[in-house]
Amino acid sequence: MRLLLFAIALLPFYVRAESFWLVTDFHMDSHYTGYVDSSQPKNCWAQKGSAPPQTFGRYGCDPNMELVNLFTGSMKTIDPKPSFILLNGDFCGHDISSGEKFDTVRTVYQSYAQSFPNVPLLPSLGNDDALDNYQLACGPNNDYYNKLSEVFNATGMTFQTSDDMATFQRGGYYSYSPLPNLRIIVLNTVLYSPSNRNFDTSRDSDPCGQFAWLQTTMAKAQQKGESVVVMAHIPPTDNGYDSQFLWRDAYADRWFSLLSANRQIPLSIFGHLHHDGWVLLRPSDVHALAVRVGRIPANAPAPNRADDVPFHAHLYAPSVTPSQGNNPGIRRFTLAQDGASKWLVGDYNQYFLDIERAYFMNKTALTLGYSISDHLRPTEVKIGLGPVAFTTLAMQMASNARIYAEWSMRHEVYSSLKQHQYLCAMMHSSREQYNQCVATYGGAAMM
């Protein structure tokens, strides 16, 4: 019903509306029992407890398939015929062994394949999906990627071209066109993490050739008139809770430069952080990082204030796992196509499961936490989600404590951040601009 109302609200601007789901950070752990052992309160694998097991998850623990299946069932009830589903990595629990990981990925992916048999399921890889956390490398005949492609193919996924299969088997990245004139680019950003010991920016300027492929794929999409949505697991941002930057600087600089040269791509979608939010990218972020890595001299003119307008939004989403004390959450997006066949991400609904209500009151239905369009003006809804919409939201929250409080209360998944740290992390992609922001309002600078 909401999709229909959204489409009607946009007429006569748009001629077609579709939907897709985003699910990220499952961290499925088949060892989770749900028991609370009073002698070991943080033991998620306890074999007995003083109370009945918390079947659908417990704060601080990764879930088993009971919670994953609850979400797939609820998604099917809410929207049984999405155009596609994005499964944004970290299928595997934090503490499971390397020998369990392929089976875990297969089990989670198969749950979605069985619930949505004719819907394209597009997976990305997270750091916990690596056999050794974060340690993903390159092909061309990489046993890990070959095995994963077999797992996905056996449970229903089909790469659209042999080139897509080849890039996945080389480095875990590919593209997919689920609708006419729409291209989903799925990146493997675990390659760029400082925690990945396989790469060093001094010798590996382009791990697995992904940046060169990305530049070519973006150019082809533009030539074909395709709209592009980028999905990857680890975002190129401050992580927002212990002030650590999540990509190596040289790789973030290259990503920022690509986006700066392709400003027709307003939005990219990430996971990994387990909570709700976004990070804006503006010319001053690109400049600051370029200076830091030595791509331009320190005395190069910085963008003036009038031109320092955000041109891209990194959007990240809550997790299925409640391991960080959060309620599990997922998102359902709407896509709108205008008369020129351009696709825009127009809205999203965020749903969550209240873990305590599920346990104490047996309330297992997902709750609609909020719709992002409720926070936007009609003119911003018209142009779709991107830097304009999220800049407006961030500015409203920065200037009005009531709006920030209302927004944070409606986002019942999780946010333990102080207001100024949260807002600075949303407004700036480079650590220099972030540090300047938090220094202005107080708080610890990013390392």
From TrEMBL:
InterPro entries: Calcineurin-like_PHP, Metallo-depent_PP-like. The keyword tRNA-binding does not apply. It comes from the Eukaryota. The keyword Signal applies. Residues 20-275 form the Calcineurin-like phosphoesterase domain. Residues 1-17 form the signal peptide. Gene3D superfamilies: 3.60.21.10. Keywords: Glycoprotein, Hydrolase, Signal. This is Ser/Thr protein phosphatase. The lineage of its organism: Eukaryota, Metamonada, Preaxostyla, Paratrimastigidae, Paratrimastix.
